[in-house]
Amino acid sequence: MGTDLTKHEQIIRHIKSLNVNTKVSVRQIARELEVSEGTAYRAIKGAESQGLVSSIPKVGTIRIQSEEEREIEDLTLREIARIVDGEILTGEDCLDIVPSRFVVGSNSVGVLKKYLSGDALLIVGDIYELQVLAVERNTHLFIAGAFKISQDVIDAAQRRGLVIISSPYDTFEAVSVLSRSLYERLTEKELLLVEDIMVTNVHYLTADDTVEDWHRLSQQTGHSRFPVVDQNMMVVGIITAVDVAGMDKDTSVLSLMTSDVLKVEARMLVTHLSRVLLWEGFELVPIVKKGRLIGVVSRQDILQAFQQMQKQPQVGETIDNLVMSGFKLEKWEEGTRLTGEITQFMINEYGSASPGVIAMILTTTAYIAVRKQLKMDTFVNEMTMYHMEPLEVGGKVDAYARIINYEKKSCVVDLNVYCNSKLKVKGILSLRFVKK
């Protein structure tokens, strides 16, 4: 039992399999994959936006080599020279080397000996003894301030195959420019979406299946949780080992399944879904498109994705995920309680939590309260916030949300934020329900 790739996905996969410079046409794709020309056209345009194909005048659309994602580590000596308007004095053949570390020559010879090593880059001015030390340690040189460098140092660097870059920037300016370049690379990140990690070959049960079917599928796949769908592939519930335990084999899964299921769209951020899974306690989430099952994501899938993200510095976070990642859901009889800490990432120039961060804490707490108690998704209609005292960095935060009014299309949530057990912020949020 399973779902196939969509026609769009099949076409993209087919295009990826083509050799570079292969011509791609709408009619050819439509004929070979047995799809409509409209579907083929949209998929080819999608492939073009992904950098898989390119439309060339008088030639047509051809398969091209997609540009690899650049990582922070790819800051080569060539790029460093370009960034700082540097002149290459030696080592023109070694400019594609990525420095293993950056060292600023502001310490004594004895101290620098601990840090200089092969393929490192020493940023230094006109201190001759440090320049000589760098060459002896097979370290590349960045001469700040365009100071004149001795010919014996240049000759020694050439013999050892080392790069010397001379830049008009002084040491402080050079470090600042390079730091800014690294920061821009760090902030220009991709956001990991659910569609990037979801399992599309989904094992599921239908509303007509029985406990016996669950046992057969479980034995076949080794899994214990399955989405349940109707005849239109609309998700109607989830059935687990706990639900079928001790039940007669002819019992319908429809009568045993959990119908209160968290379903998300494929464009949701993985980091956001991970928090929702933690707050809601779900192990498996059906991924839907207009209510129809197109994939699933488990906690294990998300853990593996996070492990991979740590190896890919080009993969980033949104501000709300960075702010709320350290908050946890705690028990509170009257509603919802989130606990966390004000970190340096959240503060403004005065050293306390910024109003934007506080508003984010309020709206997130309210969202969770409505999701858990009313099983509804919402967006903020109106918000009133009373900021009585600053929330200082390092402060332990407790945010409480309680639904005080509930109508057909909206609700009102009362919020109180304590920092180190003292009431600091009060808020009233009017939320409208999202129809799916």
Output the keywords.
Arc Repressor Mutant, subunit A, 436 residues, extended, six-stranded antiparallel beta sheet, alpha/beta, Udp-n-acetylmuramoylalanyl-d-glutamate--2,6- Diaminopimelate Ligase, Chain: A, domain 1, CBS-domain, 15 helices
Summarize the structure.
With 436 residues, this protein is α/β, with parallel strands linked by helices.
Task: Give a verbal description of the structure.
- The protein has 436 residues and is α/β, with parallel strands linked by helices.
- The chain has four domains: 7-63, Arc Repressor Mutant, subunit A; 72-187, 3-Layer(aba) Sandwich (Udp-n-acetylmuramoylalanyl-d-glutamate--2,6- Diaminopimelate Ligase, Chain: A, domain 1); 194-308, CBS-domain (Roll), CATH 3.10.580.10; 318-433, Hotdog Thioesterase (Thiol Ester Dehydrase, Chain A, Roll).
- Helix content is 33%, strand content 25%.
- It has helices at residues 7-17, 26-33, 37-49, 77-83, 109-112, 128-136, 151-160, 171-187, 194-197, 211-221, 241-244, 270-280, 299-309, 319-324, 355-374, and strands spanning 23-24, 53-56, 60-63, 87-90, 102-104, 121-124, 140-143, 164-166, 190-191, 205-206, 226-229, 235-239, 264-265, 284-289, 292-298, 315-316, 328-330, 336-341, 378-387, 396-406, 410-419, 422-433.
- The strands form six sheets. Strands 17-18-20-21-22-19 form a six-stranded antiparallel beta sheet, with helices on one face.
- Helix 1 (7-17) packs across helix 3 (37-49), helix 2 packs across helix 3 and helix 6 runs parallel beside helix 7.
- Residues 67-73 and 310-316 have low confidence and may be disordered.
